[in-house]
Specification:
By secondary structure, the chain is an alpha+beta fold. It is globular and about 45 Å long. The protein is about 35% helix and about 25% strand. It is built from 6 helices and 10 strands, in the order H-E-E-E-E-E-E-H-H-E-E-H-H-E-E-H.
Length: about 190
């Protein structure tokens, strides 16, 4: 039984890698030119360079707990993963660098977008006004129910006016949260 489970797991890994190859091939990218996050819902953002190419796909990662990546190396593809969390992408055409961040509720309330912009500033000299940011598709407020504990995390950080735009109470200790609106707010506030 253990051999069968191990064999099945190895087949899944091979199939997953083959799917990466097929997807990347449509964009004329190679797995060995990608750097993948190791997401744990943090605000940790890492500078990726060519020595990290392939990490997460063709070779093991040398890092853990990373929800965002930035680079200025042409041809290096930054890979982040999303289900219902918010993808946020950054491009600084002036300093020729990019970033990608995975913003779940923990990263959103802790402001991973700010961490990404600040790392681009410290590393590449990016100015917030030169960075173009894009919020990708994610779960909408009507579909994203959170409990009182999560709602309280947001209430402790945002003003009553902001809370009115991002969180509404439904019943009992249930709320609907708009992560996209929070990310947008973070991107439009002065740093």
């Amino acid at each position: 039984l253990h051999k069968a489970i191990r064999r099945q797991r190895q087949m899944c890994i091979r199939d997953r890698y083959k799917n990466y190859e097929l997807f990347l091939d449509t964009m004329e990218l190679k797995p060995e030119n990608c750097v993948c996050t190791k997401q744990t819902h943090t605000t940790n953002v890492l500078v990726a360079d060519s020595s990290m190419a392939g990490m997460g796909l063709t070779k093991p990662r040398s890092y853990d707990n990373v929800d965002g990546l930035v680079t200025n190396e042409p041809g290096l593809c930054l890979v982040t993963y999303f289900a219902d969390c918010v993808p946020v992408y950054f491009i600084d055409p002036v300093n020729k660098c990019i970033g990608a961040a995975h913003s779940g509720w923990r990263g959103t309330v802790a402001d991973i977008t700010h961490e990404t912009v600040q790392l681009m500033n410290r590393t590449y000299g990016s100015k917030p006004e030169d960075i173009h940011a894009f919020i990708g598709p994610s779960i909408c407020q009507d579909c994203y129910e959170v409990d009182e504990a999560v709602a309280e995390k947001f209430r402790s950080v945002y003003s009553q006016n902001e809370i009115g735009m991002i969180l509404y109470h439904t019943a009992g200790d249930k709320y609907q949260l708009n992560l996209q609106a929070v990310s947008y707010t973070h991107l439009t506030l002065p740093t």
